Amino acid sequence: MKNWILTILAICLTGILSAQLPKKNEIIINKKIKQIKEDNDMGNNIITYNFSSTGDIIDKVVKAKEGVITSKIEYYYSEGLIQNTKIFSLISHASGLVHSGKDEYFYDSNNNLIKMNEYSWGLMQPNNRIDNKSTYKYDSQLNLANKTEYKYRPSNGAVSSTTQYQYSYKEEKLYERKKYYNESYKSKEAYEYDEKGKLIKTMYYSNDGQAIEKTTFQYNTEGLLIEENIYYLTWKQSYVVKYSYVFY
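Below the sequence we write its predicted structure tokens.
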């Protein structure tokens, strides 16, 4: 089983995509990364990912540009795997961060993530009712082959929609991801790598094959992602996301 961490970090540090697997990333350990900070030129939030000296993600903190923390996710482990999280949100400046949700992770005998339940609570949602559920299936090489997201109605807990992602690979790298919404084909992402195997470009296509978005990736001499350039081809707009690192 490949050792990845969460979503964007898998892109940041390896240039190869996989599932949203809450597992250690060898580069986090080898590079002795303590913190990754994500910033952008759109005036939006600053996101910070903090890691332990053993490569475990500790938390994800989102701050507004003026420095106020607007949300936080804390990760809790058992036998080296994330079992659950606590999610905190800023309801008001007077109340500060409030415990507003949690995630639960489930694994198979090979320690592959097979299910994640997401909960949030408030006026519309009781604490014990699932908001969203994701299931994961793998191919014979233990690459992620299929991810299905189920969204539930807060009023009665019934499934309101499903989103499915199908993953295809070439030469052990993710080559393509197709998205289906309620079983209807919606979009496709295609991935391009350099000769060292790092992700350098992602293209997004609508269901009629039109290119609608492009993302390019730049790395430093240590092979760590330092910049993403996102281009909205239909709207002819773009923005930049930058990454910085703190080390042990």
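The chain is about 5% helix and 60% strand.
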